[in-house]
Amino acid sequence: MVQRRWPWWAAHSPVARQWRAGGDYRRRVTETTGWRDLGFARVDTARAARTGDPEVIFGQGKTPEQTVELLRALHDAHPRRAVLATRLDPAAQAAVGTAFGGRVRIDELAGCATLGPLPEPVGTVTVVAAGTSDRAVAAEAAATVRAFGATAQVVTDVGVAGIHRLFAVRDELEQADCLVVVAGMEGALPSVVGGLTGVPLVAVPTSVGYGASLGGIAALLAMLNSCAPGVVVVNIDNGFGAGVHAARVARQSRSRSADAASAAGNRQAPNGRPQ
Question: Rounded to an integer, what is the distance from CA 272 to the centroid of its chain?
Fold first, then answer.
């Protein structure tokens, strides 16, 4: 537990004594303030109330034991909603699987784990990967989309070197509420997709490529300079960020479409009959 430095005038107060004693008092205080102190981390238990989605664990740089404890704390705070951990190495995946058994879903390719029931999906996101080398980032995006309450469909290996493969799935692109387009190398695919469809699109540059790709910087700059209007770009290899954006766009789009259809159905003509 993190040691708190109390002001001299409060160091011996009843509140300070109860806090140092730990246990139920400390947990009640932190949970009513919207966070829970685990010592090595302060879990944001109020994020779902503010944004509609719980806090997500970024597993990179954390020990497997810390990842397990964070997942448990977030699940305790949101027992009816899946909580997500990303960037889990094999050791962390094994620890999570041992701790939670059949209750946890582990996606080894994505390096992600979800604990708790997935939300009922609203809207559809299609994740498009330029090559099979981009699949891990695409899988992270898809896992995130599902945890954030939308349906995820994945289309793989439709890069611009064989652009006829992309034309064959054009109908799938048009039917989505939002697109995530993942590409490394020269990063051209989002511009092509953005020129074929008006579906909202978020592009993800990956670190895949030879020397002059500069670990994804070439793809990032190409996407930022896209001549196709409406291409939104996230950081290199950030499938998670793209998935969150796309899921929220899909949810909002589908929800508002349903509201508009309901309002149109309830609208009545002057004679009292539905228009």
Answer: 46
* Residues 199 and 258 grouped into a single domain: yes
The amino acid at residue 60 is Q
Dihedral (CA of 94, 144, 80, 66) sign: positive
- Locus of tokens 């793209």: 242
Structural domain ending residue among the three candidates 117, 135, 153: 117
Predicted pLDDT of residue 50 = 87
Q: Are residues 109 and 221 in the same domain?
A: no
User: Is pLDDT larger for residue 191 or for residue 28?
Assistant: 191
pLDDT single digits (tens) 198-232: 999 999 999 999 999 999 999 999 999 999 999 99
End-to-end CA, the chain = 64
Q: Give the tokens for residue 179.
A: 């697109």
- Residue-wise pLDDT for 7-54, tens only, equals 444 445 454 455 455 555 455 545 557 889 899 999 999 898 888 899
CA distances from 22 to 18, 59, 68, 194 (A): 7, 27, 21, 55
According to the model, what pLDDT value does residue 31 have? 54
271 lies in a domain?
Answer: no
> How many domains does the chain fold into?
2
Q: What is the pLDDT of residue 34?
A: 85
What is the helix (H) or strand (E) element at residue 65, kind and residue range? Answer: helix 64-77
Residues 54 and 158 in one domain: no
Give the C-alpha distances (Å, rounded to integers) separating 257 from 127, 190, 214, 250, 263.
Answer: 22, 26, 42, 11, 10
- The answer to whether residues 164 and 124 belong to one domain is yes
Place of tokens 């409060």: 10
